[in-house]
Amino acid sequence: MAEEGTILIVDDEQNILSSLRRLFMCHDVDVRTANSAEEALEMLAERPAEFLLCDYKMPDVNGIQLLERVKTLYPDMFRAILSGYVEADTITYAIGRGTAMAYFKKPWTDYDLAGKILHIISTMRHIKDKELLRIFGTIDKLPGIPKIYYEINDAVTAGQSIDRIAGIIKRDTSLTAKVLQIGNSVFYSGKGSATLEQAILMIGLTTIKDMVLMYKISEGLGVSAAVEKELAKIFAAGLVLNKAMEHYLVHSGEKYSKEISGTLGILSRVGRIILLIYHPERYYETVNFAEGTECSFDEAERELGYVTDTERVITCSFLDLYNIPFEILEIILYKGQPEKVSPENRLVAAVYSAMSGLLSAIGKGTEITDDKLESFSFGILSTAKLKNTAYIITEVWNIGK
């Protein structure tokens, strides 16, 4: 295997394939090319690749159809689509379904396509570290993505009405109760009387979608009554993190992806949920150490010697199995190191890291000094806006106690 990666590029135009191959001339990369979907599948049968880059518009089958086949045959392979055509709805749908995990635009002369691909390969190698097998080996069977998640995702993507989305949720009694509970909680300024439709609006469609995913997956993992209270605390912290990020980003005046930022608070907690359910001794050891020393969960893990199988890596490895977009994985994996994240996601990464730090500090009653705010800015964020958001988090946190 080439040191920097193995890549298969599929396009029906030979000049495009030649141009893409040249992008990697200065790198230790094994680049193979195919002129059709049929040829690509034959090549993969002989020798799989780490990264598949496929053109959308091809004469035999389109790129999405090829990626659907590859997803079934080689679920561990990173799948990306390349397109110069305006097929936004189709590609958004494909990413939402996990068929494509990234999308690159033609022409690629405006950005460093090779750099982005190599960054993805490097990050995914980290996420798929073999030492994580001992964590996942304790799980008898990973729950599949629930059908209701696909239904809600499709409805949100298609811009369907709140009534339609509420109708889907109402078919699941336990899920309806959970959405109402959260919508009526202090974290969303609820007064205990919101309808399901109002709760969905308060929580937000992006958050609802991923909340459904996490809630149903946790059900599938087998949550016992003994950990339900602790699980509720994990979910609550994720919701507060979502709200804190939203507050900062809305007032930042800068462009950002709501699809990415609106999911991080909830999805970033999956590793903690897995530890709680399958490794409760380790989970409570880490929580107790963090509380006793007033440090974060991440810092407690490092002090206790958990280096390669940290909560963040477990989270990303698990989410990768469900084909969650790469942008979300890299932000979670590099928490506290936004400079390692792709430039277009760096603002959201910095806000996620800052809000995670603020939430941890506030939860422990640590004084938020100017020096601490400066450390949370990562040289990117406004300390004044961070201070204002910290005040909001503190108010919500104290009310929720």
Structure commentary:
This protein has helices at about 15-20, 35-45, 65-75, 90-95, 115-125, 135, 145-155, 160-170, 175-185, 195-205, 205-220, 230-250, 260-265, 270-280, 280-295, 295-305, 310-320, 325-335, 345-365, 370-375, 385-400; strands at about 5-10, 30-35, 50-55, 80-85, 100-105. The chain is α/β, with parallel strands linked by helices. The mean pLDDT is about 85. It is globular.
Give a topology summary.
Blueprint: E1 5-10, H1 14-22, E2 29-34, H2 37-46, E3 51-55, H3 63-73, E4 78-83, H4 88-96, E5 102-105, H5 113-127, H6 133-136, H7 147-157, H8 162-170, H9 173-183, H10 196-203, H11 205-221, H12 228-252, H13 258-267, H14 270-278, H15 280-293, H16 297-303, H17 311-321, H18 326-333, H19 346-363, H20 370-377, H21 383-400
Parallel strand pairs: 1-2, 1-3, 3-4, 4-5
Distance between the termini: 53 Å
Oligomer: single chain
The ordered H/E elements are EHEHEHEHEHHHHHHHHHHHHHHHHH
Helix-residue proportion: 55-70%
Look at the structure and give the mean pLDDT: 83
**What's the alpha carbon Rg, rounded to whole Å?**
22 Å
* Percentage of β-strand residues: 5-15%
Strand order of the largest sheet: 2-1-3-4-5
Specify the number of helices.
21
Give the overall shape. globular
In total, how many beta strands? 5
Which structural class should the secondary elements be placed in? alpha/beta
